[in-house]
Specification:
It is built from 14 helices and 11 strands. The radius of gyration is 21 Å and the shape is globular. A 6-stranded parallel sheet has the order 3-2-1-4-5-6. The longest helix is centred in the N-terminal third of the chain and has 14 residues. By secondary structure, it is an alpha/beta fold. The protein folds into 2 domains: 190 residues, Glycogen Phosphorylase B (Rossmann fold, 3-Layer(aba) Sandwich), CATH 3.40.50.2000; 150 residues, Glycogen Phosphorylase B (Rossmann fold).
Length: 349
Amino acid sequence: MSNASAQLKKPKILLVKLSSLGDVLHNLPIVWDLRARLPEAQIDWVVEEGYVHLLTPLLSKDGFKGIDRIIPFGLRRWKKNLFKLSTWQQFFAFKKELQAVSYDVIIETQGLLKSAIVCSLAKKSSNAVIAGLANATEFSGYEPIARSFYNQSVQVPFQCHAVDRSRWVTCSALNWSLIDRKNAPQFFPETYVNSLGKASVGLNELKSPYILCFHSTAREAKRWPNADWIALGKELSSRGYQMVLPWGNVAEQSVSREIAAQIPNALVPPAFSIEDAFGVIAGAVLIVGVDTGLTHLAAVLNKPTVEIYCDSPLWKTEGYWSKNIRNVGDIQKPPTVEQVLQAASELLP
């Protein structure tokens, strides 16, 4: 490390990655990078309260060392109730919890003002390193004002995979050589992944073997055409697989029903939470999805996954760490049905 605190054998480290689903998932590997070199460090993480369950499998317990503390941050909810006394009471309770530890190293990999403010609120040792992004990466949100909250701004490549970007900031903060991509990222503990059972959310109509189709995403341009989903679904259904089309809101439910109506035996399941998605994904024989958080969840769980890119760059979030993943398409180059079908066929039993 570059400061006196860096010489500590048991540094107290705070990770700040608040949201969203995919971003939090792609930040997980730095926990294991830190543990590999600093096994006795205290590692805490501030995250939006809606994503806490993504981190709970990493909590340290019974001799297992992962994350020591998860500190929930309720900004999304607080913004809707700014003038309520309870909102400010909750904010000050968060601040008190955050400041219960004096940190030697703070690693902020989001590059947004809200994340940088969390860094400023944290209690720090006298020579603490506060590291964050010095520049934007292409197609990612970035607010330059965040740099003023760091004492170590890290320049990263303009085109940088989300996992690699987090590793750049972490290695700079700790004065380490950059971790090579050949050192495949770890996300969840292997014992946790192996323990995941099938869906337990009342999906009685799920029939094995089933294939999950994550067709929905926040940005319309990232969607794969409905006609292509239908063509893919008909072919895979003819091979004996049940096509399952989850949804997250009423509009997405309508699209799921439209697609499912034209695929034999397809299922539009009831709504389920992201937490429940672990079990639903674990029970699937294959996941096919566009560039969205639940598709990335399948990839980091090392499930057979076909990631479809239509209007976002492949290099930004592609699953490169497993032979169980196929990445098809690219920005403004959506894949054909034949390309997705070929990728799926390579992964199906």
